[in-house]
Specification:
- By secondary structure, the protein is mainly β.
- The chain has a domain of 106 residues: Pnp Oxidase, Chain A, CATH 2.30.110.
- The protein is 13% helix and 37% strand.
- The protein has three helices and nine strands.
- The strands form two sheets. Strands 2-1-5-8-9-4-3 form a seven-stranded antiparallel sheet. A two-stranded antiparallel sheet has the order 6-7.
- A hairpin with a 6-residue loop joins strand 6 and strand 7.
- It is globular, with a radius of gyration of 17 Å.
- The protein starts with 20 loop residues before the first strand and ends in a 19-residue tail after the last strand.
């Protein structure tokens, strides 16, 4: 195929497909929230770090800014309805976590909730951030990774092929 056989695609969110993730956080007052995040990924393996992009007008933005931590929760097909609800409703409008019965536990290292029904949960401490236009990219040092027992081998490697991502 030659370049003349290609057509210009949209530039917004052009790096797809990516796994669907929910970022959970807790404010200093103990308030929990969860939001769907489209802009996320690995950004260092030594030390392990991930980045999540959040629009400053989102309710969770200030919770992460003040607490300095968050959890990235990887979502599988079984969590699809909850993902869609959490991604389309704001905590400003009511208790969306109660509305869809989100099951959570406290993080092992960071002061943020873990969505226990998600197969992988990545606890992070914010080490830096950069405003990239519409989003602020929070760089989180990975502090702990929780994974369902059936997807982890004896050495702790996660078999992502066993997760049915949405």
């Amino acid at each position: 195929m030659s370049l003349s056989e290609k057509k210009q695609g949209k530039m917004k969110s052009c790096l797809q497909p990516l796994a669907k993730v929910l970022v959970s956080c807790r404010g200093l007052n103990g308030e929990d929230d969860v939001l769907a995040v489209a802009y996320c990924g690995n950004c260092s393996y030594d030390p392990p770090m991930v980045m999540v992009g959040i629009v400053p007008t989102r309710y969770s933005y200030n919770l992460i800014k003040e607490s300095g931590c968050f959890v990235v929760n990887l979502v599988d097909e079984s969590y699809g309805d909850k993902f869609n609800y959490l991604g389309s409703h704001s905590k400003r409008d009511g208790d969306k976590l109660a509305a869809v019965d989100v099951l959570m536990s406290d993080g092992k290292i960071v002061n943020a909730p873990i969505l226990t029904e998600c197969p992988v949960n990545i606890e992070c401490t914010v080490v830096d951030s950069i405003v990239t236009g519409s989003h602020e990219m929070f760089i989180g040092k990975v502090e702990y990774v929780h994974a369902d027992k059936e997807i982890v081998d004896a050495e702790g490697n996660i078999d992502y092929a066993k997760i049915k991502f949405i």
